[in-house]
Structure formats: C-alpha cells, structure tokens
Amino acid sequence: MKTTLITLLIAVSSVLNAQEPVKKTATFIKPKNLVATSVTHNKTFAKDNFKLVGVPTRFKNSYQVSNILVGFEDYESLAGVTLEHVMEGELGHPESDLLKKIEVKGKIKKYKYQQFFVKTANRGNENYFYFISESKDKHGVRGCIAFKQQDAAQANQILNDLLNSIKLN
To answer: How far apart are CA 97 and CA 42, in angstroms?
Structure first.
C-alpha cells in the first residue's frame, strides 16, 4: 500500500507541476546518431512497432535511431522522495495480468555525475529502459528507451552514453 501511494504521488506530482526545459534542469550530450523527432512521429512509430506504446512517446525530448525510441524530460520531485522510494514503488508486486507478463528488474546505479534508478522491462521481443535521476533542488531527469531485442546492444550504449552525460544544474 505504501509503495503504491508513493508511486501515485510521484505520478500526480509530475502531471500537476509545471516543467522547466531540460536545459534549465540539466545539461547532457546527445548520444551520436540520435535524430530529434516529434511526439506525433513517436506515437505513430510506437503504435506500428510496439505493443506497449505510451511510455516513450510522451516526453518533451524525443529521439529515434534505427528502431529505438528515446524520450526524456525534467521532473519536479516531492520533498523527501528518494531513489530508494522510487525503486520500491516501481518494483512492487505486479497487480494486473498485464504486469505479470512483463519481466521487470531494476537497480540504483551511479553514473558519471549522479545516481539513477534504472528499470528494465521485457515483454517478449519488446524491451524498455526506464530511468529517473536523483533530484537536485527538487528537480531531476527521467525518461525511457524502447527497443526490440535485436537492438539491445545499441540501446544499452545509448542508455550508458546518455546517463553518463546528464549533469543536473
């Protein structure tokens, strides 16, 4: 119950709070070969190529390379919510039949400038990396990478390059 409440509070906070552009919250180096795309393009591409279409299509910063979608944005955190709280909420017990069909793993990892919680979700040939940074002055960066199994090595490289380059301001 506690983990569900924390996850719900984070989600509601994300929707209700006005967002600053990532460039005010963090600096980053765009991994090579990523091409900026629109939310409309990502929604169409995701619908045609993935069964779980919602996650990488809603972020302000959207990119694509080959069949990999990348999206991320800044977020405003609630006071006292840590990456450990996020991990506990995200890796809680699956409550729906859909979630029971998805293999989920996650961990908190230190990258070059700060820590991130990274969750990996696999459903058949579809794979997703979800990431959220620790917050600095109640702001951080979160995002998602969607890819097929055959693109796993390239998606891993994008994830590592991106998270190693993000530096909160």
So the answer is: 26
Domains of the chain (ranges, CATH numbers): 2-168 (3.40.1000.10)
Residue for token digits 């069949």? Answer: 67
In tens, the pLDDT along 80-109 reads: 888 998 888 887 655 555 556 677 889 999
Angle at 73 between CA 156 and CA 133, to 5 degrees: 60
The predicted model scores a pTM of 0.80
CB of 160 closer than 8 Å to CB of 118: no
Bridging pattern class, strands 103-110 and 115-123:
antiparallel
Give the Cα separation of 143 and 28 in Å (integer): 13
pLDDT tens readout for residues 135-167 = 998 899 999 999 999 999 999 999 999 999 999
- Give Dmax over CA atoms of the chain in angstroms: 42
